[in-house]
Amino acid sequence: HKKRCMVTTQADCLADTACNWDGSACAETKCYKHADEVTCNLDTDCDWDAAGCGLCVERYCFDTHTDKDSCNSDQKGVCRWDDANNKCVDKVCDDYNNPALYPDMVCPCSADPRCLVDKSVTPPVCIDQKYSSCPDLDVVVSFDASCSMDNTFGRHPNGFDALMEVMRDWVSSVPLTGEDSTIGINSVDKGGRLRVAFNSWDMGVRSAQCPTCSCNPTGAAQGDGIPTLSIVPGTSSSVADTCGRLTGDRNQLIADINWHEGENLRCATKVKEAAEWAGEIFKESPAHRQKVLLIITDGKISDKDELASASTVLAAQGVKVFGIYLKRQASATTSDAENLATLKEVVSDPKETHALSLQVDEALAIIDGFCDPNSPFGTYITQGSGAQVTTCSQIGALASCDAEKTCQWNSISLQCEDHPCFSHCNEYNCTNDPNNKCMWNANSLECEKAVCADYQNQPDCLLNQCEWDGTKDPSCIDPECDATTEDACVNLGEKCQWDTSLQPPDCVVTPCYYNQTECLADPNCMWDDVCADPVDQKCVPKRCTLDSHKTQAGCQADIYCVWSQQLTCEPAPCVNYPDDKCCDHDDSCHWDVSQSPAVCKQKYCPSTYPTNQHVDPCNADGLCMWDSTTNECVEKVCNNMTECACKEDPDCFWNGVKCADKKYGEC
Fold this sequence. Notes:
The protein contains 23 helices and 34 strands. By secondary structure, the protein is an alpha+beta fold. Strands 11-10-9-14-15-16 form a six-stranded mixed beta sheet, with helices on both faces. Strands 1-2 form a two-stranded antiparallel ribbon.
């Protein structure tokens, strides 16, 4: 190629992507020396710049950083230092799964906007965001290796070589099962990861290390058809013996691509045997894995009418068939349209959306979108799979957000966000968070918000503002009544009550908040059926039965108890009425709301002056009067008084007709 980098200034040198300034002179980059796309793409430091001038250029990380510190602190966050090869390389999400590089995977993965932590598998793994909806998927990629693929495609001098680079880029980032080609039907991996198989075709079909077709100079096919997969030997130690079988091993896939890049067949465009072989390959795909056949071609499918048998097999296997037609330039020609029409005849329904016409550089985005429900092919592949790795920000409901142990609901923005605990990358920082209740999950390697059920003993439970209930499993439970004001406590319902006997007053669980069956099973509770209406009957604590009630002083210190003439502590009159409805039906009782919880108490006057020996003190009490009709002390009511008694009572007045309360004197 043309000799470049003959300029003498640093600015002019760096303005040319083919040049580097070494401090004193301008020199060609390492990658510019690769004159063709194949050798360029095989060099991991280089990339074919089809968007620019069609040159081999150095990759961003390799070109930008020459030392470890600057590489690992790259502003874009897309580089990492390769100690083994002493150079800066591109960082992909899968790198975070390497404990030698990242002992604490969760935090750096979560911090990388391209990646997310897949918690649906154990242990969790870091995956690229664009693969978050992947089902368990087996893909056979069958690409056209006919002679027309050797032509120039856009700024790629060789279409087939460009396609191989697309495949290489794809398998370098896609989440794979890690299972090699010998696993076959025995694959048990679940969690939205892929296995892939490659084969190239023209008038025959073959794959890495298992050629069954070659072309003589006249273009006639040689070979004897499809190999029987079951008799092809395979070992996990070799990366080059997949023989076109499904593999989730990245090294095997890269080796397959490299093999195909050097062995394209250059015959006519026929797809029948490739479709038949795909049917054989999918026999080694278990039922739980979805199946996709992707056909990539740049020509007219000449044997489209001969695929009935292969199509029947693929349909029975549940295979979804997609197609990509590679056009050489951005503008489609009449020939492109005709060729695309033949491809549409061999893909699944709906055919218009299962086959696309693309340039080579557009193909990667479509294949990368296999797991994107919004992409052309992904909408069919992910349909009904239920596969979805969810991040906190994708959760729209409060209850669902709170249920996730790494999320919390923001009541101001009304959005779900990462919980502060999730920011801790190791167990020490997690369990020693001074501001949040955090707990380290050894299975997921995540710091999660701790919930009360996580605490196994009473001291830890109470220390973390939870409630201990030894009758339940787990015994440490969330505080049901955690309101800080009386109004808020009342709004929580009958299960909570505001207790003013505590200092300071507090919202507590209502004692004996049980149904009848639960109530009778608790020795500290009783079913109170004194109310005539069953709706008003409820479970209440047994009154006056504690050890402290065995003495007169202890008994009388409890507002619910009285010391009897039999020298025992008994429930005070009226206290067993559980609510104001039942209480008010008893003329001797009233509902006392001067305290919380409110309680039914005996009315003051009849309880204070119970016999006719108390007539005078009853009348002398400003709150009471003696009712000679019922022969009892009752609450003073002016309109029940005689004229004489009315005129003598300072709280009443005689209006000429009857006695009235002074506060209503102006009515």
